[in-house]
Amino acid sequence: MASEIDGIDDRLRTFIAAQPMYFVASAPLDGGHVNVSPKGYADTFAVLDDHTVAYLDLFGSGIETVAHLRQEGNRRITVMFCSFTRNSKIVRLFGTGRMVRPDTPEFEALKGHFNTAHIGIRAIIVIDVERIRDSCGYAVPYMTLVDERPVLDKRAARRDDEEWADRITNANAASIDGLPGLDADHPLPSAVVR
């Protein structure tokens, strides 16, 4: 049933690349709320090496993952992929993550792994994978992908710099548990070089 995997080999890379969505889980150190975020857009996730992955963090409705990763002594994160096809399988990547701001040289070095044409890029989340487990996924339903949902990109395209600045200083300033989210000087999406 469940097994440990030493690293992200070619077989596992192929499995990850075939999944149209993934889930990101994080939590504060003490108490608070556990957060699980579904992520779409297949071109937003990249395997960097056998023990490092990253994903484009797009502006959404909250800032939970970033706040948890920024919490002193925390950085715990899990990414889960599950197959909805005839081949049942679940893979979890356990590790520690960090946010890479768009105004850093590291962001410039990493952005080639993604489709940075997405509007509303908030950061890149880099995860050092410490443990990999797979399991059967026998209870996961069969589903057929119709298409990627374009709503997030379309909605982001309608926002101007004033609206983005408001999201940074208000909706993305703190998590639901009051942990710091984005700093007030976080770059606006219009400043992200595509």
UniProtKB/TrEMBL annotation:
- Organism, by scientific name, is Catenulispora pinistramenti
Record PANTHER family? PYRIDOXAMINE PHOSPHATE OXIDASE FAMILY PROTEIN (AFU_ORTHOLOGUE AFUA_6G11440) (PTHR39336:SF1)
* Residues annotated as domain Pyridoxamine 5'-phosphate oxidase N-terminal: 8-136
Which domain of life does the protein's organism represent?
A: Bacteria
Instruction: Identify the Pfam families for this entry.
Output: PNPOx_N
* Name listed for the protein in its UniProt record: Pyridoxamine 5'-phosphate oxidase family protein
